[in-house]
């Protein structure tokens, strides 16, 4: 039997070696009103400000010691300007440059300091149309792990993952397998149409999730807390501030990943997930979990329906010239239509494997 990594080696036989990616490390979002974004990310979510300029805020969460994991930059169109992965050493930047030149996508090398606190960067437009950066060198700043005096009750610990919307999940999965990402979980139907896949380099469920839909668009970036109660506090706090409209979905327990979750929308509509307690995936034979798209517990373990906006809405992305990237429609059937459409159905799987079916249109 061939393993996924053997498959990806076959596929990439004619390409130079792929860069050694460690993890999803930071994202850059274009926002329309820096003060409004600051009120959300700093005053409510309590991310730590590393640095602030006239047009940008550089943020990190409490356990992070690199300069930033989130950049908010003022601009005309709210969009995602970069998803950044950290590679294992500075030498891997040459590997990345050679690899993406061979792939034939736009590649730029940015000198150290082009982005505050970050060394040299290889910036690419990936084959899925996303603006992606690779870096190694970064300025170290104070790690606030034990600064309990400033954590508050909703302490956010780390950036965990990106979720991207892309029309062809099979193609996107192959591209990431070429980068030696492995699949932890996916969602399929009985015809093997894949609706979503979760892929990782660090030993968790994912660094990037692929969501089937019109793309390239950014679905969300996710930060993790260490405890579930920290997520519940963020909900209570938003209620107390009369900002419950910022809560889009959750709190709940995911089926996929088993993590406890909450989705928020920032003042520009960018979606932020707060996530905690998924599981270890670091052994080479970590089993892949495949969910049936009709299983009503796949996206919420308690069976809570997913709100339509979660499937429909996502942020545009910029190309390397800072222009909004064109969007390609998904041609395969969409999960939203299956799940919330008039003729959708779902079921609750019983312990004996039987399916207790309900037509969603008939649910009360
Ligand atoms: O909604 S899902 O349970 O499929 C899910 C969504 C699982 C993990 C995630 O990080 C996510 O965003
Ligand atoms: Fe997520």
Question: How would the blueprint of this fold be written?
Answer:
Blueprint: H1 4-11, E1 21-31, H2 34-44, E2 48-52, E3 56-60, E4 70-74, E5 79-87, H3 92-103, E6 107-110, E7 121-125, E8 131-135, H4 148-151, E9 158-166, H5 169-178, E10 182-188, E11 194-200, E12 208-212, E13 217-224, H6 228-240, E14 247-253, E15 260-265, E16 271-276, E17 289-292, H7 308-312, E18 315-316, H8 335-340, E19 345-349, E20 355-359
Parallel strand pairs: 1-4, 5-8, 9-12, 10-17, 13-16
Antiparallel strand pairs: 1-5, 2-3, 3-4, 6-7, 7-8, 9-13, 10-11, 11-12, 13-18, 14-15, 15-16, 19-20
Bound molecules: 3,4-dihydroxybenzenesulfonic acid and fe (ii) ion.
The site of 3,4-dihydroxybenzenesulfonic acid has 12 residues, from strand 16.
Organism: Saxibacter everestensis
Domain VOC: 23-137, 158-277
Family: Belongs to the extradiol ring-cleavage dioxygenase family.
Structural commentary:
By secondary structure, this protein is of the alpha+beta class. 19% of the residues lie in helices and 33% in strands. Strands 9, 10, 11, 12, 13, 14, 15, 16, 17 and 18 form a ten-stranded mixed beta sheet that branches. The chain has an eight-stranded mixed beta sheet with strand order 2-3-4-1-5-8-7-6, covered by helices on one side. Fe (ii) ion binds at residues 161, 163, 209, 220, 222, 273, 275.
Quick overview of this protein structure:
The chain has 8 helices and 20 strands. With 364 residues, it is an alpha+beta fold. Strands 9, 10, 11, 12, 13, 14, 15, 16, 17 and 18 form a 10-stranded mixed sheet that branches. It has an 8-stranded mixed sheet with strand order 2-3-4-1-5-8-7-6, with helices on one face. A two-stranded antiparallel ribbon has the order 19-20.
């Amino acid at each position: 039997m061939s393993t996924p990594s053997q498959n990806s080696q076959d596929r990439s036989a004619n390409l130079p070696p792929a860069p050694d990616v460690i993890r999803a490390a930071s994202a850059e979002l274009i926002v329309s009103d820096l003060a409004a974004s600051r009120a959300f990310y700093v005053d409510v979510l309590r991310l730590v400000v590393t640095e602030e300029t006239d047009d940008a805020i550089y943020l990190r969460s409490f356990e992070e010691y690199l300069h930033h994991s989130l950049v908010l930059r003022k601009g005309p169109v709210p969009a995602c300007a970069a998803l950044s992965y950290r590679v294992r050493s500075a030498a891997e930047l040459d590997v990345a440059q050679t690899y993406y030149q061979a792939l034939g996508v736009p590649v730029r090398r940015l000198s150290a300091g082009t982005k505050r606190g970050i060394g040299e960067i290889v910036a690419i437009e990936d084959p899925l149309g996303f603006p992606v950066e690779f870096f190694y060198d970064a300025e170290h700043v104070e790690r606030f792990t034990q600064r309990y005096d400033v954590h508050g009750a909703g302490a956010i610990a780390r950036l965990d993952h990106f979720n991207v919307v892309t029309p062809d999940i099979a193609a996107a999965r192959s591209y990431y397998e070429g980068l030696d990402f492995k699949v932890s979980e996916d969602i399929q139907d009985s015809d093997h149409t894949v609706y979503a896949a979760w892929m990782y380099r660090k030993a968790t469920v994912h660094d990037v999730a692929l969501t089937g839909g019109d793309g390239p668009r950014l679905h969300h970036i996710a930060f993790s807390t260490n405890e579930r109660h920290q997520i519940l506090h963020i909900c209570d706090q938003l209620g107390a501030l009369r900002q419950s409209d910022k809560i889009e979905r959750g709190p709940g327990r995911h089926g996929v990943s088993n993590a406890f979750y909450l989705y928020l929308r920032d003042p520009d509509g960018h979606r932020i997930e707060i996530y905690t307690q998924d599981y270890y995936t670091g052994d080479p034979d970590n089993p892949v979990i495949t969910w049936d798209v009709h299983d009503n517990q796949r996206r919420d373990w308690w069976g809570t329906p997913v709100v339509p906006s979660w499937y429909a809405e996502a942020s545009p992305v910029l190309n390397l010239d800072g222009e909004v990237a064109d969007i390609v429609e998904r041609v395969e059937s969409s999960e939203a239509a299956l799940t919330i459409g008039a003729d959708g159905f779902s079921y609750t799987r019983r312990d004996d494997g039987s399916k207790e079916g309900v037509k969603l249109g008939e649910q009360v």
